[in-house]
TrEMBL record, chains A, B:
One of its GO terms (biological process) is glycolytic process. The keyword Cell membrane does not apply. Keywords: ATP-binding, Kinase, Nucleotide-binding, Transferase. Pfam families: ROK. The keyword ATP-binding applies. Its EC number is 2.7.1.2. GO terms for molecular function: ATP binding; glucokinase activity. It comes from Candidatus Mediterraneibacter quadrami. It is an enzyme of class 2 (transferase). The lineage of its organism: Bacteria, Bacillati, Bacillota, Clostridia, Lachnospirales. One of its GO terms (cellular component) is cytoplasm. This is Glucokinase. Belongs to the ROK (NagC/XylR) family. InterPro entries: ATPase_NBD (IPR043129), ROK (IPR000600), ROK_cs (IPR049874), ROK_glcA (IPR004654).
Amino acid sequence: MKYCIGVDIGGTTVKMGLFEEDGKILDKWEIVTDTSEEGKAVLPNIASSIAAKISEHGLDKRDVLGIGAGVPAPVNSEGIVNGSANLGWKYKEVKKELEELTGLSAYIGNDANVAALGEMWKGGGEGEKNMIMVTLGTGVGGGVIIDGKMLVGANGAGGEIGHICVNYSEKDQCGCGNRGCLEQYASATGIVRLAKQKLGQEMRSTVLNKEDVTAKDVFDAVKAGDEVAQEIAVEFGRYLGYGLANLAAVVDPAVFVIGGGVSKAGEVLLPYIEKPFMERAFFANKNVRFVLAQLGNDAGICGAAKMVLDAE
Amino acid sequence: MKYCIGVDIGGTTVKMGLFEEDGKILDKWEIVTDTSEEGKAVLPNIASSIAAKISEHGLDKRDVLGIGAGVPAPVNSEGIVNGSANLGWKYKEVKKELEELTGLSAYIGNDANVAALGEMWKGGGEGEKNMIMVTLGTGVGGGVIIDGKMLVGANGAGGEIGHICVNYSEKDQCGCGNRGCLEQYASATGIVRLAKQKLGQEMRSTVLNKEDVTAKDVFDAVKAGDEVAQEIAVEFGRYLGYGLANLAAVVDPAVFVIGGGVSKAGEVLLPYIEKPFMERAFFANKNVRFVLAQLGNDAGICGAAKMVLDAE
């Protein structure tokens, strides 16, 4: 039996998993991310944690095929990062350093792309090879899988779907400096923005409170039949569905996997996205399913392990 | 020396080329496309023309690595077409039929995607592996190359970039039934539409004639310094540049290759596209070049030949 390691490097914790080559997770653990001094301890800490875990399981390093790692930054095809705000890194040859520290082969990807690969392997996209994962969290992230492989892009910045423009009339600015980015409507923050705009001019009664509304409040109210909340969800879904219709014309996916904190609202979310998508999608791209992500926080370590297996 | 055949199947003619494996074109020829009776003679005519050409050059069929063919329709990964209006085809197993007819391996792709592969190999995208080709003709077509390979998509309908929405306020309908498609502004037909709208309410003098203006007229007038024409070009470029900025966020290309009839206007076109692109593109995707297509009508046969070489 051969093994591989999946690593999901975040700004607060590093999640790791020990996998059998058939995909079974033998062990999962995490360590704190030490971002001090430009994050110089991040990779050494990962390397020693992996070495200890290999030994704890009585494994021989020669039975470990390699390490995959997702990083919160664009990563080029040589496994090089040109700065990661979350980790404190400047230019870093992540693949090379991790290989030198561990004596194992390493494969590095952007965390959102890697999570998408994980969802294709063992999650919402299982069985498909062309997939777009949309992560609705504080921002909107994404990962695109083409013919079973992550779309990396020339600058390691493929799949940045939160920053496609879905409203050319928008007055407010996105964090990226543009106006009308998908993230301004479909992230948790964006939903709150839409809700506050709506509640500010709303005369009907609603359970939502303009002052401290959250994205979760909105979808809880949707489930409870609150009409105002449902109209906010329609607006959210229209921007997201229209945006995804544009992505579909380029990528022609078999499935959209919807993940991130907002997706915890559950299946109720999907028709709000699918209906406007179908209104706008090019006819040849309508043969596509909308599903929820299934792996939660494990998507990153799963996708990272899959990178190792795909390289074999 | 080994050889391969590139075929570009169009609704009027079939273009073919005999290539050495290093990419040199030994011979180019074309035959008329017989679309009668649901296009049943198209593939047999191609097969006999290739057989004659192989014999004419004194080659042994065993020295021919295979045939690549671009088809005006979505093509799935098994080389199957589910109907092509231009050829009269219904469901057709193109790869299988062509292999049976010729005794050679066949590789089939959508014509726009195949032309993009050709431009990457020997044209405007030479040296790059991540590229978007935009074909500005009667409509707007496209092909996306990711890591050196064509983006085919789950339904064979990847790269349909003419039908991304770039104007959610558009009142006029696109041929596809939607409103605001890129094709409504950036195709030759779309440019005429923009020009007629502009000329209908224009008081300044211009060399353009509202009744019979063409896309070529517009760019000829742009070159001559006509202010009204330049404003039409700005509007064309804004829709196209904004649309390409959205594509870049997904694909992160190193280069955009602009082809098709409209691109015959030449280098004058590029700044009109690049400026609005840079205004709107996500910062991580701005490291991209805009170039003109170089292969003209040969892009299709070149890309088709490259499919054969890539499969080896």
